[in-house]
Amino acid sequence: MPDATVIPIGGEDGARKAASRAARSAGATGPRAKRATARPEPEVVAYDEVESDAAHDVDGAPQRLDATLADWLDFMRRRITGDYVVDDFGFDEELTDRVFMAPLRPLYEKWFRVETRGIENVPSHGGALVVANHSGTIALDAVMTQVALHDHHPAHRNLRMLGANLVFQTPFMGEVARKSGHTLACNPDAERLLSTGEIVGVWPEGFKGIGKPYTERYKLQRFGRGGFVATALRTKTPIIPCAVVGAEEIYPIIGNAKTLARLFNLPYFPITPTFPWLGPFGFVPLPSKWIIEFGEPIMTDHYPEGAADDPMLVFNITDQVRETIQQTLYRLLVQRRSVFR
């Protein structure tokens, strides 16, 4: 009978342990040999990569901060040395973008949450006349329209507004208005701006629209004698009807202190639920939900020369623009979920 092969319990591992015990019993008592392990090769990183990672620490924040600071220092240097450009109307485009519009953007985006529609109806090149309704006690609807065209139009168009005499006679405000690109509401200035390819904004309701009581909200006032239509006809530029919803609710006028208005030489002295009762806090506008819609342009280039001198034609186009804005306001009010949403 052949010799039986003894298989130790535990398979190969058990055999190794048995062999080890046999070796120790035979006198092999030296230290065990350590199993060699392969050490990983150190990763070689180029010096420029290390420098790049350090420069872009925290998503590149330090480098962006340095670039922003350098940009502002360069801006201040140009302001001090007079190395900047203004046009014939006093418009300082860089100052407007960096300084004047900076506090308006949070109002536009966070406070009023403005929704802009139909901005593609405003041409990217050439002149156009934007005609809008006016409301809100303070002309924030005008500056919000300016922000919409500058920041959200594909061509970042500058809106050159036509303002009342009071704006340019007021200390500090008149200078800011000039540097922001705005001018007096008169035909020669408007025609000159349109002829040079600018976007001009006009609010034909004037103080009657911006100072009307809350009970008459979103009811358009008279559009004057249609001087803006005659200007568009002379320059062959399109008229863009613009409807603004939301401005009526920021300072709801519940009364008009006419005696105080005459005392301060103002067209009206508004009394609202917060002003003058809350003092300076009464100037904080209510956070209503805004919608600004630019309608389809009304073309004027097909009319013959001298069409601006036809009073019936001017009246009809004026009425068409006014009716377009009024119907757009009604439609937007139905679509808006609430005053503040």
Largest sheet: 7 strands, mixed
Assign the CATH topology of one domain.
Answer: Glycerol-3-phosphate (1)-acyltransferase
Find the count of extended strands (DSSP E, 2+ residues). Answer: 9
Name of the CATH first level of one domain: Alpha Beta
The strands making up the biggest β-sheet line up spatially as 1-9-6-2-5-3-4
Class derived from helix and strand content: alpha/beta
| N- to C-terminal distance | 99 Å
Task: Tell me the strand percentage band.
Answer: 5-15%
User: What is the gyration radius calculated from CA atoms?
Assistant: 36 Å
CATH superfamily of one domain: Glycerol-3-phosphate (1)-acyltransferase
| Overall 3D form | globular
Order of helices and strands: HHHHHEEHEHHEHEHHEEHEEH
Q: Count the helices. How many?
A: 13
Unreliable spans are 4-12, 22-38, 44-58
Please state the second-level CATH architecture of one domain.
Answer: 3-Layer(aba) Sandwich
Residues in helix, %: 40-55%
